[in-house]
Amino acid sequence: MKSIFSIILIVAVSLVLSLALNQLYAQDKPLVRTSAQPALHGMPIWQAEATGKIKSAPFKSEFTLFASGGPQVEALAASQWDVGAMGAVPTILAGIRYGYKFIAISNDESETNDLWVRPDSPLLKNKGANKKYPEIYGTAADWRGKKILSTTVSTGHYALSATLKALGLADSDVSIVHMEQGQAVTAFGAGEGDILQLWAPFSYIAEAKGWLKVSSGAKAGAIILGGVGARKEFAEERPDLVLAWLKIYLGEIEALKADPKGGVAPLLKYFTQYCGLELTAQQVELEFKYRPLFTAAQQVELLTNPEKAPAWLDSAARFLLDQGRITQQEYDSYKAANYYIDASFVKKLAESQK
User: pTM, whole model, 2 decimals?
Assistant: First the structure.
């Protein structure tokens, strides 16, 4: 009996020491701060934390949520986060202003940056005014002068401007009122505005309310990439941590791509329990329908082919130039820097998977 108690005591002491050592080891790990938004591209690291996968990483993790890219870029300027995911437009601005590195693609957001109207909108009477863009509703006359609720200087704004351009219009031909996504949905529901610019998952909320989509980035010929990036100083000082972080991030992305049905429940949990959005499983399924995901090998090809990611980022950068948000000199410098694309990390991951 005494020996049994001795064994139990030894096991108990071992467990205590093990827990203490694990805690000490975790404290000694460097911190990697992730930034994200309430969107599919924000889920991977949150999911890795929720499932405990990140415990085996060579870093401690800190996760921060932002409403949109604007405040996310402001926080980057203050060095408040190290790696994260944003839309193409804030990613470009962060590159131009702060040398932020575009290291991977979170998803193709072209269709999920879109524009909505109520069922009685006059825009719905006409479709395909420009035969090159047959899926856009409304004529130039239908759109002219309309009040549009939009999160400005965003990927959604880019989709809006591309739509106006396809109809032969400019931003100055309509009235754009800046609002964050949740605020815009509420205001539009209360009768404010004629057109609503959204991105997923807010788009699914609009659809559930009976509002109708009249255009999107894809429908207007704008390919919009979600950008995964790293703060310049962090990437240069700790490329090992960037690679370790991206391995986890893309591991989750590849798992979602391989089994989208299996991703519905955790993504729904991310949206409802963490982001505070009211969505259904059926709505979350649409994320995997409308947002193409890419493996590490696919990303290497997309990031290094001049006719693909560099060209798509160039179009978005020219949108910012047309908006007067960047100067010609800034645009030229951004282009000369190859859009701050750093494909070295995904190349290493793709090589390790062979």
Answer: 0.89
